[in-house]
Amino acid sequence: MTRVLLTGFEPFGGEDVNPSWQAVSLVAAGPPPGIQVTAARLSCVFGTALEELAAAVEAADPDLVLCVGQAGGRTGISVERVAVNVDDARIPDNAGRQPVDEPVVPGGPAAYFAALPVKACVAAVRAAGIPASVSQTAGTFVCNHVFYGLAHLIATRRPALRGGFVHVPYAPEQVVDRAEPSLPADTVAHALRAIVTTAVTTREDLRVPEGATH
């Protein structure tokens, strides 16, 4: 049975919930057939989140890691293509830390590509009737911090491991008083199951245009 580690985040930015953790918890409670899913909740704190991620990887010994985070304002599921080696926080994290132009890993490569078939994963989510796209940036907050940290862990310590990052929109309860796009947690969980299944069974990505013009 394939072992998969899913991570989500605690709430941040004054929110009461984080849809990434809501959805990840649902997938862990009802995983795709033939896949063993472990869920871990990460702190929205620079540095601490990477320590928690490393501990979760050590404990679960997974074949695949999919980290998930909130991207308020996005309209669908975003499968991230690239992680960059920079922390540049527009807002403080949950510990009040606000690094500016600091590397995630001093001396590390400028960027890593996801070790996932990102386009095939997007296609699988769309086939499930859920909006999805390839994203060319995971931002420079804690989500990118974790994505880069995961990629660096794979490159330096666990070369057989595969992994990547997915951003999800707000949950409906977060936007009842504002005009922002959202997706229910069970819909996001359905998308994550499609991504996990595709990532586990697909090694060669689709060769289709999913780039951005700006």
Automatic annotation (TrEMBL):
Active site residues according to the UniProt entry: E80, C143, H167
Residue ranges of the TM segments: none
Enzymatic reactions: Release of an N-terminal pyroglutamyl group from a polypeptide, the second amino acid generally not being Pro
Primary residence: cytoplasm
Similarity comment text for this entry: Belongs to the peptidase C15 family.
Function: Removes 5-oxoproline from various penultimate amino acid residues except L-proline.
Protein name: Pyrrolidone-carboxylate peptidase
